Amino acid sequence: MQTPDRYAVIGNPVAHSKSPDIHAIFARQTGQNMIYERLLAPLEGFSSAISNFIAEGGKGANVTVPFKLEAFEIASDLTARAKSAGAVNTLKFEGKSILGDNTDGVGLITDIVRNAGMQIRGKRVLLLGAGGAARGVMLPLIEQNPGGMVIANRSLAKAADLAQRFSSSGSVGVSAFGELKGQFDLIINATSASISDDMPPVPVTIFGAGTLALDMMYGSQPTRFLRFAAEHGASVRDGFGMLVEQAAESFFVWRGIRPDTKPVFLALRP
User: Fold this and answer.
1) At what angle do helices 156-165 and 132-143 cross, to 10 degrees?
2) Looking at the annotation, which residues are catalytic?
3) Strands, DSSP E only, in the chain?
4) Nearest in space to 98 (alpha carbons), one of 81, 69, 73, 80
5) SS3 243
6) Angle between helix 19-30 and 240-255 (nearest 10)
7) Residue 210 β-bridge partners
8) Angle CA(108)–CA(163)–CA(122) in degrees, nearest 5?
9) DSSP state of 43
C-alpha cells in the first residue's frame, strides 16, 4: 500500500487540538490516503519544526497559536487572503515552495452564517483583539457588509493599526475595552484570554438578548467569556464550528476536495 501523505497541526500548546480527529473523518469520507498528527513546536523553534517536518515528508500543516505571523514570514508564496490577513494558518509544501494561506476567515463566516444561521449584513459587529487571529477574519467580516464594525483591544494603537490596514475595504472603528458603547449584534472574541480562562475587561452593556457572542477558543466547557456573555443575555457559540469549517477549507487547499462537515459535528461536537 502506498505510504500515506503526512499533515500536521503545529502550535504551542497543541495537545488539546481536535484537528487530527477532524481530518481523519475527512480522509475516510473522501477516500484520501493521508495521516494528520499534532506537532508541538518550541516557542523559539517554529521555523526549524517546519523544516524538519518537510524533510520528513510533510505535505502540509495547519498553524495555530502562537505561530500564525511566523508562518506568514516563512511562506515563499501567499494567497490573496493570506496577504490581506498578514497571517497564515495553512501551509502547503510542494517541492521547494511553501504556500501560505489563511482559512480562518472563511471558516468563521461559514460557521456564523450557515451553522448558526445569522446574516451579518447590516449587523453591528465587535471584534475583540487585534492580533493574528483577528487579522485573519477582518476582510471576510468586512465583505459581509455589516452595519458597523468596531475593533476593541487593550492597546488602542494596535487596534488602530489593524483598522488602518483594512481601511480601503471598509470603515472600521476602534475602542479600548472599557470604553465600548452600546449593544452589538455579533461579538467575536479573538483574544488569547480564554487560554487562561480570562476575558477582556468589557462592559456588560455590549451584550443583549439579540447578541451572538462567539469565542474563537473551544473546549469541553464554555470559556469565561462565553459564561459572562450568557449571564448577560447573549446567545453563545464557541470556536469549534469555526475550527471544523476552516479545516474543511484547508483540506480543500491540500487535496482539491471539499469534505462535508456535518459528520464531524455529529461525531466530535463537545
Assistant:
1) 40
2) 68
3) 5-11, 34-40, 58-63, 77-78, 90-94, 97-101, 124-128, 148-152, 173-175, 186-189, 212-215, 235-237
4) 73
5) helix
6) 50
7) none
8) 55
9) T
pTM of the predicted model as reported, rounded to 2 decimal places: 0.93
Average pLDDT, 10 consecutive residues per value, the chain (270 residues): 94 94 98 98 98 97 93 97 93 97 97 98 97 90 97 96 94 96 97 89 97 94 96 97 98 98 91
In angstroms and rounded to an integer, the radius of gyration of the C-alpha atoms of the chain is: 18
Are the beta carbons of 163 and 172 closer than 8 angstroms? yes
Q: Are 159 and 151 in contact (CB under 8 A)?
A: yes
Rounded CA separation 7/13 (Å): 17
Question: Distance of CA 158 to CAs 42, 85, 86, 151, Å?
Answer: 26, 15, 14, 10
- The DSSP annotation for 105-155 comes to HHHHHHIIIIIS----TT-EEEEE--SHHHHHHHHHHHHT--SEEEEE-SS
For residue range 139-167, what is the model confidence (pLDDT) as tens digits?
999 999 999 999 999 999 999 999 999 99
Cα gap 102→225, rounded to integer Å: 25
Q: How far apart are CA 188 and CA 214, in angstroms?
A: 5
Q: How far is CA 231 from CA 126, 127, 179, 203, 222, in A?
A: 18, 20, 21, 13, 12
C-alpha cell at 106: 472563511
The C-alpha angle with vertex 153 and arms to 149 and 158, in degrees rounded to 5, equals 95
Q: What is the dihedral of CA 194, 200, 205, 206, to 10 degrees?
A: -70
Q: Specify burial of residue 190 (Cβ count, 10 A radius: 0-12, 13-18, 19+).
A: buried
